[in-house]
Hints:
Elements: E1 2-12, E2 18-29, E3 34-38, H1 45-52, E4 60-65, E5 68-69, H2 73-77, E6 79-82, H3 94-104, H4 109-122, H5 138-150, E7 156-160, H6 168-183, E8 187-191, H7 195-201, E9 204-209, E10 212-217, H8 219-226, H9 231-239
Parallel strand pairs: 3-8, 3-9, 6-7, 7-8
Antiparallel strand pairs: 1-2, 1-4, 4-5, 9-10
Amino acid sequence: MIEAFGIERTFRGPRSSDVAALRGATLAARAGEITGLLGPNGSGKTTLFRILAGVLKPGSGSARVMGLDAGGDGARRVTGLLTEEPALPARVTAAWHLAMHAMLRGASWSDAASRTRTLLDRIGLGPVAGRECGTLSRGQRRRVAFARALIGEPRALLLDEPTSALDMEAAAVVRAEMVRLAREGHTVLLATHNPDEAWRLCTMLWVLREGRVVAGGSPQELLRVTGKATLEDACLALQRPGG
C-alpha cells in the first residue's frame, strides 16, 4: 500500500516568495490494484511522487510505502520509480544499464542478467538490448526507463506517464505489464493525462488541483458525482477552480 497523509510542500519561488506545491494532500493506493493520479500540469503530481519515492521530504504530513516511512531506506528498497523525464546514460547499452540497477538492488550478476533478458523481452526490447541508450528512439528509451523501475522487483510502483511518447503497440505492452503486476499483488500508482487509460486500468482515481486532492473514487463514482458522461469531462470539471 502507498499512503500520503496531509502532505504539505512549498518551494522558494521568484522574489523569495514561497510557492505551495502540495496543500494537505491525502490519498492511498492499495495492493493488487492500479490507482490513478490525475491533474493538470503544476497540480503537484511530480512533487508528490518525489516525496513518496523518498527523494524529497514533505514540509509537513507523512507518507508510507508498504507500511514503511517513505523517506527511509527500507521503503526505497521496495519502491520502483519512473519519472516524467527519466535520464539514461547515452553510452551504456540498455541491458547493461538494467543489469547494473538490478545489482544495486542486491541481485547477483547472474540473477541480474536473467532479470534483464526476461524483462526486455517482455516489453518488446529484446532486439535492442545490446544497443547504447543514446541510439534508441524516444519511445524505446521510455520503455528502458519503465524497465528500470521494475528491475529491482519492487512491491510498490510509482509510474509517471509510463505510456507517453509510445506508439499504440508499445503502450499496449506497457499497460499489459502494469495489469500483470497489479494481479500479482503489487501496488501501482499511475500518474496519467490520458482519461481513456485511466478508465481502462484504474479501480481508484485521485484528482489533484493546485496541490490539493479535490476528489477520489472509482471512475464510475467520479462520473456520478460530476454528472458527466465521460471521464475526461468529469476530470476537467473537477480540475477547474470551484469544480
